[in-house]
Amino acid sequence: MSKRLQDIALTLYTKILAPRHTVIPLTKEDNFEPKVILVHNLEMFTMTSPRYPRSVMMFVNKKRRKVILGGIIISAVLMTLRSAPLKDQTAETLTRPGLRSFMQQGERIGIPFLIQPKLKCNQESERSTVITVLSKTSNLPQREVIRQTWGCSKMQIKYNFRLFFVIGTVTDVSSLNNEVFLYGDIIQVDIPESYYNIVEKTIATFQWVTELCFEPRFFFKMDDDVYFDLEFLKIIQNNDTYLSDDVIHGTCVYGVPPYRYLDAEGDKFKVSIGEYPFNTYPPYCGGPGYFMTSHTANKMYLMMKTTRSFKFEDVYVGMVACLLQISVETIDNFVYEKKNITRLLQKVKVNGFRVVHGLTLDDVQYLWDSRHLEYNDRHA
């Protein structure tokens, strides 16, 4: 590229684009090289910099402006810049020995339980199920709608399961005390409520199931914005071969790479090489819902005790499973993400989705009322 075009490009960048639209500052000392530039009709303008050799500046938004350079009017498209990674050449190839070396740590101290549920964990049948729902302390409405729909005491008896909510700590506990007294289904762990503490709450959940709720045969973990089709429990409980040890079921993904966009400072999904040095994650099941035998949960917790934490709960569970050579398997139509509630109801009816995620309180109630009415009509 000619020196004049480089100067024009640099002026466009430093005087106009950089102050308003870029997230990574570049200077003349960077000797950046514009890759594509149409001076009189700037439609594309990408560049790289030696300071960020593995990224390319890309436009994600544009606005047309007239720019005067040396008396020449240039019609330019000013675009919002975003850096995107080039092929990740510094990440290691994921292997089980490498993951074990990276994740290994000294044995962690057990997490204290500040509140234990009054309800007993075991049910009469040896093939009973425990369902733990991770919830924020402030999410009382979400817990209430679950208690009034698929998680009500009548359904727990009918479908042979127990339901418990796992919460963290907050400063104001006035409403919590009343909830604990009324329902007796709260497990409070000594962990402050935070997005990045979800992993610690999950570890505490596995700890509680292992140490204090080992009687049930099956263990489910769910979020508090889901609807659960209880008929699925019958399939598991009545089929000795459906769910074996050393396998985790859910809606799972395989070979997913970490999100490493360089402009993602503050983005909770960004993962640096230091945080995770491998090119892909191990297979894992999505956090809204997954299940396993209690024996498998016990093995998972024992490994968690000597495994460093990670920022994403579902990925972390997949890491621990990988270290133990526990299989991660997708169940067809297990988790469905809500888009349109009317279409959703039809999909649940036709395809038999077991867990529906991302629901409002009204959505959960609507699904429950519709499915419950349908069930009563069939068995009238």
UniProtKB/TrEMBL annotation:
The chain crosses the membrane at residues 67-84. Keywords: Glycosyltransferase, Golgi apparatus, Membrane, Signal-anchor, Transferase, Transmembrane, Transmembrane helix. It is an enzyme of class 2 (transferase). It is found in: Golgi apparatus membrane. It is a single-pass type II membrane protein. It holds the Pfam family Galactosyl_T. One of its GO terms (cellular component) is Golgi membrane. Its EC number is 2.4.1.-. GO terms for biological process: protein O-linked glycosylation. One of its GO terms (molecular function) is hexosyltransferase activity. Belongs to the glycosyltransferase 31 family. PANTHER family: BETA-1,3-N-ACETYLGLUCOSAMINYLTRANSFERASE, HEXOSYLTRANSFERASE. This is Hexosyltransferase. It comes from Mizuhopecten yessoensis (Japanese scallop).
